[in-house]
């Protein structure tokens, strides 16, 4: 029964020391890799963030993983994320594989039901996004867009049409 709640002071000490060092190492690696590492830009960024957390937990709790191995894993994950982000900026092909495109959910009074169903977005979620945007009526809304990070953007009607923010939004229905 003792092993369930307490192994030894040595394991507690190891967890504290390795935890502090791993945490400092992770913060250091994330800071030098840039803001993009922990952003919510796309699915790949989310996977890297979750993997970093999982790696940190493994370093903390597994005696079989040395701190140097954990740092190597951090560097590998952050390095791969940096490389993929770098390639996606320079290659349309890589960018299309890594990033999704924003989807039009509502435009000029019409809900795009097929897109909403495909993206698993309910009308009540669109209405909530519009309310959160401080808009009281759908008649004031030009468009509602499901962004690449999963957030919902609301574009209010405007008299300005010089350079539309909807130019890269997919409006394919079916």
Features:
174 residues, alpha+beta, single chain
How would you characterize the overall build of this protein?
The chain is of the alpha+beta class and 174 residues long. Helices cover 55% and strands 10% of the residues. The protein has seven helices and four strands, in the order H-H-H-H-H-E-E-H-H-E-E. A four-stranded antiparallel beta sheet has the order 2-1-3-4. A hairpin with a 2-residue loop joins strand 1 and strand 2. Helix 4 crosses helix 5. The longest helix has 25 residues. The termini are far apart.
Helix content: 55-70%
Strand fraction band? 5-15%
Distance between the termini: 60 Å
Q: What's the SSE pattern?
A: HHHHHEEHHEE
Strand order of the largest sheet: 2-1-3-4
Strand segment tally: 4
Note poorly predicted spans.
none
Report the radius of gyration as a whole number of Å. 23 Å
Main sheet?
4 strands, antiparallel
Residue-averaged pLDDT: 85
How many DSSP helices? 7
Task: Report the principal-axis shape.
Answer: elongated
Structural class: alpha+beta
